[in-house]
């Protein structure tokens, strides 16, 4: 996998992609399009304020996997730093990784990001 | 004199309100007038919060522009439009700055259990079961959270970090404190708010003296969305919210089915923005990108229908989250209060039964131990139950009194009322107290003209109170009306009114920067 930017990636056919997301302030309100366009989610495992999940790219060259993710917050009223930061690490079984961040200010969520994966 | 006290409270209210409203006034002046403005304001807030790399992902994700698209492309406004930008604020009625301890000025009959997470203070006039009244300032806060908030650089995730510490630190974070002070006032004040016939003149406590201190410990309190106890609830919430990314995914597919050019152009426009753009330029950019979306796809029934689905999913997601927060806030709490109360001769009224009262020795201080249970009743009303007792810290020499001075039970119902425009949601409170004085309240018999009088027995008290908030400031003005069969030292029917001010600083800290 070769990251192009935060939400665009070049992938290998049949590559297994790991998506690992953590939030600095619970609750964890990261919600995925299900199923992603062109694949299926596999091995979803919530881990406290984080979640790990995988999908596999198509075997066809030039094929796409695309999905939307909504990031939201429920920050307590008394929090003096009223924003939640999601840290997203996307890595491929063929190598390559990128970490990005989505910041959700209190009362301004959800923020939606569309992720694009295109096979070489 | 009562008027003077009222003016003091009023002056405090006005000055605090003025300070708190200063930022709000600016915000009000810039309040958007149209849903288009609201949609753009939301986009600007979302865009500005992102990292430089994240901004590109934000503007090339069509789902973020779906509300703006819907507002601009739909000739007929739907009912959903007005809900899209509604900022939900859960109003809690259980946060209590004052303390229903036996110290002189407390006007609350019952403790509700929840205290400010950070810091609060209150100014109150009146007392419930005692025979004299005085003004009291109560400071209340949580040491661990204040330290965390002061260290703002490292504040992010401080709650999580705090709860990942060892049991000692976690338990320390559950302890809050309060320190009541007797406020400065004249040497003699008339209790103009009381109808009790015999206590027409009282001696006030020493000026600016410490009235005691109080420690509060949350034995069981899960009313925080961050609590790990609710992970299962939030997992279920996420499942229910899948409609939202599925709807934005469908909106994206509807756009991409017609053209991929919009995203490329949005990325190009972003590159032209340059570093450190002003809000005006950011707003213009986001408007341009949103308008481009409308121009390209505004006539497409499929895209408009998909945008409508996104709007419906946004509203339903918010409702699903609100339901989860409501479940959390409706969980019961159990807590424990310890209060150390300094008693003084100022507690003795100038006259009892027409005679001059006195005590033979100094008055012992008190320790009050109180368990507090709070739960929700129907709708958003809450029930608080208290059970506790007072013990003498010392027994006067030669006295044969027991250590336990009294036990008391009390109940309180808080009913949030309808929101008043530009004011907020007042809370109506009804409470009742039963106090059994097993021993003489001052640890010894009060002497009236040299003759000892007994003051043991029961006190029954009922109170109605309305707390009026000052919108957006954290300030509340409680006004109460109390009826009691007697007070501690005067065995006569007592009716009195009280007014105060409470300030929850959490609200100020929580204001978006």
Report on this structure.
The complex is a heterodimer of chains A (120) and B (513). Chain A is mainly β and 120 residues long. Chain A has a single domain (2-119), classed as Sandwich (Immunoglobulin-like), CATH 2.60.40. Chain A has no helices and ten strands. In chain A, the strands form two sheets. A five-stranded mixed beta sheet of chain A has the order 1-2-10-7-4, with no helix packed on it. In chain A, strand 1 and strand 2 (8-11) form a beta hairpin. Chain A starts with a strand and ends with a strand. The mean pLDDT of chain A is 93. With 513 residues, chain B is α+β, with helices and mostly antiparallel strands. Chain B folds into two domains: 32-87 and 232-325, no CATH class; 119-223 and 331-509, Porin. Chain B is built from 14 helices and 17 strands. In chain B, helix 4 (66-73) crosses helix 12 (279-297). Mean pLDDT of chain B is 73; it is low at 1-30, 86-93, 152-157 and 185-205. At the A-B interface, strand 4, strand 7, strand 9 and strand 10 of A face helix 2, helix 3, helix 9, helix 10 and helix 13 of B.
- Secondary structure tally: strands of chain B: 17
What is the H/E order of chain A? Answer: EEEEEEEEEE
Order of strands, main sheet of chain A, comes to: 1-2-10-7-4
Number of domains of chain B: 2
**CATH topology group of the largest domain in chain B:** Porin
Distance between the termini of chain A: 9 Å
**CATH architecture field of chain A:** Sandwich
- The helicity of chain B comes to 25-40%
**Overall pLDDT confidence of chain B:** 73
Poorly predicted residue ranges of chain A: none
* Mean pLDDT, all residues of chain A: 93
The CATH homologous superfamily of the largest domain in chain B: monomeric porin ompg
Shape of chain B: elongated
Chart the SSEs and their pairings.
The complex is a heterodimer of chains A (120) and B (513).
Chain A: E1 2-5, E2 8-11, E3 16-23, E4 29-32, E5 42-47, E6 50-56, E7 64-72, E8 83-92, E9 97-105, E10 111-119
Chain B: H1 2-29, H2 35-49, H3 52-59, H4 66-73, H5 81-84, E1 119-125, E2 135-141, H6 143-150, H7 158-164, H8 167-173, E3 175-182, E4 188-189, E5 202-203, E6 212-221, H9 231-240, H10 243-256, H11 261-273, H12 279-297, H13 301-329, E7 333-341, E8 357-358, E9 366-376, E10 382-392, E11 404-416, E12 427-437, E13 446-448, E14 451-453, E15 457-470, E16 475-484, E17 494-504, H14 505-509
Antiparallel strand pairs in B: 1-2, 1-17, 2-3, 3-6, 4-5, 6-7, 7-9, 8-13, 9-10, 10-11, 11-12, 12-15, 13-14, 15-16, 16-17
């Amino acid at each position: 996998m070769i990251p192009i930017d935060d939400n665009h990636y070049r992938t290998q056919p049949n590559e297994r992609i790991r998506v690992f997301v953590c939030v600095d302030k619970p609750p964890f309100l990261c919600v995925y399009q299900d199923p992603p366009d062109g694949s299926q989610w596999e091995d979803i495992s919530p881990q406290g304020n984080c979640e790990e999940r995988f999908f596999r790219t198509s075997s066809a060259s030039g094929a796409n996997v695309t999905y939307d993710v909504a990031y939201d917050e429920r920050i307590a009223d008394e929090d003096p730093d009223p924003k939640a930061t999601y840290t997203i690490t996307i890595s491929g079984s063929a190598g390559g990784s990128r970490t990005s961040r989505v910041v959700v200010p209190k009362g301004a969520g959800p923020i939606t990001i569309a992720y694009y994966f295109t096979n070489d | 004199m009562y008027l003077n006290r009222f003016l003091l409270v009023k002056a405090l209210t006005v000055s605090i309100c003025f300070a708190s409203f200063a930022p709000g006034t600016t915000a009000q002046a810039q309040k958007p007038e149209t849903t288009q403005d609201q949609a753009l304001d939301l986009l600007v807030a979302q865009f500005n919060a992102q990292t430089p790399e994240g901004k590109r992902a934000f503007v090339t994700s069509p789902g973020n522009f779906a509300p703006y698209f819907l507002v601009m492309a739909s000739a007929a406004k739907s009912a959903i439009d007005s809900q899209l930008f509604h900022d939900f604020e859960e109003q809690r009625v259980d946060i209590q700055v004052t303390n229903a301890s036996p110290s002189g000025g407390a006007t609350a009959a019952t403790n509700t259990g929840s205290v400010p997470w950070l810091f609060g203070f209150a100014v109150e006039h009146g007392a419930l079961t005692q025979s004299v009244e005085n003004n009291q300032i109560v400071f209340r806060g949580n040491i661990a959270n204040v330290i965390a908030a002061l260290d703002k650089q490292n504040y992010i995730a401080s709650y999580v970090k705090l709860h990942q510490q060892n049991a000692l630190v976690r338990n320390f974070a559950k302890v809050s404190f309060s320190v009541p002070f007797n406020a400065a006032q004249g040497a003699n004040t008339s209790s103009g708010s009381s109808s009790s016939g015999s206590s027409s003149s009282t001696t006030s406590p020493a000026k600016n003296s410490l009235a005691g201190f109080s420690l509060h410990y949350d034995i069981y309190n899960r009313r925080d969305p961050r609590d790990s106890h609710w992970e299962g609830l939030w997992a279920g919430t996420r499942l229910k919210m899948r409609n939202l990314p599925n709807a934005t995914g469908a909106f994206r597919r509807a756009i991409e089915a017609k053209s991929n050019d919009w995203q490329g152009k949005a990325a190009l426009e972003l590159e032209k923005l340059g570093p450190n753009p002003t809000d005006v330029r950011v707003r213009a950019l986001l408007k341009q990108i949103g308008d481009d979306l409308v121009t390209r796809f505004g006539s497409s029934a499929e895209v408009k229908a998909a945008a409508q689905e996104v709007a419906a999913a946004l509203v339903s997601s918010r409702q699903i989250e609100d339901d989860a927060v409501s479940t959390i806030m409706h969980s019961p709490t159990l807590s424990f209060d310890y209060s150390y109360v300094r008693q003084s001769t100022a507690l003795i009224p100038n006259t009892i039964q027409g005679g001059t009262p006195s005590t033979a020795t100094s008055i012992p201080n008190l320790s009050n131990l109180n368990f507090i249970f709070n739960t929700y009743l129907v709708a958003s009303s809450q029930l608080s139950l208290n059970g506790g007792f007072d013990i003498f810290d010392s027994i006067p020499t030669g006295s044969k009194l027991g250590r336990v001075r009294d036990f008391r039970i009390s109940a309180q119902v808080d009913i949030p009322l309808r929101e008043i425009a530009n004011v907020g949601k007042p809370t109506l409170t009804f409470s009742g107290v039963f106090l059994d004085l097993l021993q003489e309240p001052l640890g010894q018999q009060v002497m009236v003209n040299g003759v000892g009088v007994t003051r043991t027995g029961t006190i029954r008290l009922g109170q109605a109170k309305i707390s009026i908030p000052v919108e957006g400031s954290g300030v509340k003005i409680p006004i109460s009306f109390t009826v009691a069969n007697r007070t501690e030292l005067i065995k006569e029917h007592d009716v009195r009114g009280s007014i105060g001010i409470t300030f929850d600083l959490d609200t100020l800290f929580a204001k978006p920067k």
